[in-house]
Design brief:
It is a single chain. This protein has one domain. By secondary structure, the chain is mainly alpha-helical. The protein is globular. Helices cover 74% and strands 0% of the residues. The chain has 14 helices and no strands. Helix 2 packs across helix 10.
């Protein structure tokens, strides 16, 4: 798979940023008519019915090359579609969309640390300094949050960011064996062990007939645009650019989320929170940039990573 022009925005990641940015508002709005657990399970069902036909149209084989790879892909699916969604959806219930997006935007930091832990990359001092700066920015945002924000919601959302960072690193390794579409679709059954006990009862208790057209739009945005297409766009971007560069696009998700929350939900942003957003983005940028300031040999490694074909 060839990367896109280096001087132009990656179209897959650009659309993903827009879908994911508004997703925080859609999730918060939909909680008025259904609980997080019901959303997790029904979202999974819609995604599955969208991804399998797409694989057939794209002629992507839905089979595992080996039992070992099958276990690895199913484990990744249990994290991305199961564990991550549990922490993200439960956390989003108790924080504002802007705060949630800021906490999730720290995931590039966790990517760098997991890459160092698994010895895929060397951890640099710039990454550590960037992580500290990002933490200060998060403190500014959540330290001046609204009365509806809870510490439980903050911790749950931050845990989701850590899990997402781990998912990105695992997907980097498995990307040598599967296309992004295959990786997402084949991993879907792995989430059942988490979301069926979590969401079956609540999903059956939702009065689906009472949902308004706006509620249905939010639901399908979450399941299709931010879910199926968003995951596909993100993992395609990871394969084209590498995880570090792809994760930089997440810097713009909080901006989209904050503007969407202001326009749609009327949630204001204080001056200190706006400053916190900039500090978080600056910290993540510093941490990510440190990864690409290595030796020529490392740069060649990054070049080959961006072009796995």
């Amino acid at each position: 798979m060839k990367p896109t022009n280096r001087f132009l925005p990656n179209p897959y990641l650009t659309l993903t940023v827009l879908a994911w940015g508004f997703n925080f508002v859609a999730v918060k709005s939909l909680y008025q008519v259904m609980p997080p657990a019901a959303l997790a399970l029904t979202r999974w069902v819609v995604m599955l019915f969208a991804l399998v036909p797409l694989c057939l149209v794209m002629k992507e084989p839905l089979r595992f090359p080996s039992p070992r790879l099958a276990l690895q892909v199913l484990f990744l699916g249990s994290l991305t579609m199961g564990v991550y969604m549990f922490f993200f959806l439960e956390g989003a219930k108790q924080v504002t969309p802007g705060e949630s997006s800021i906490l999730i935007s720290t995931s590039p930091i966790w990517v760098l640390f997991f890459e160092a832990l698994f010895r895929l990359e060397k951890l640099r001092w710039g990454s550590v300094i960037g992580a500290v700066i990002s933490c200060l920015g998060v403190a500014l945002v959540v330290g001046h949050s609204s009365g509806t924000t809870t510490m439980f919601g903050i911790l749950m959302t931050l845990a989701a960011a850590v899990i997402w960072g781990l998912c990105v690193v695992i997907s980097r390794v498995l990307g040598a064996h599967f296309s992004p579409l295959q990786l997402i679709t084949l991993g879907m059954p792995g989430a059942l062990i988490v979301i069926v006990p979590y969401g079956l009862g609540p999903a059956l208790g939702v009065n689906w007939a009472s949902l308004s057209p706006r509620d249905w739009y939010y639901f399908f945005h979450i399941a299709l645009l931010a879910g199926a297409l968003g995951f596909y766009g993100f993992f395609t971007g990871v394969q084209q650019l590498g995880p570090g560069k792809a994760m930089r696009y997440q810097f713009f998700v909080p901006i989209v989320a904050t503007i969407s929350a202001l326009v749609v939900l009327g949630i204001p942003v204080t001056l200190l929170q706006g400053l916190g957003v900039l500090v978080v983005i600056a910290g993540v940028w510093i941490a990510s940039a440190a990864k690409f300031s290595g030796s020529p040999a490392q740069s060649q490694h990054q070049k080959s990573e961006a072009d796995p074909s």
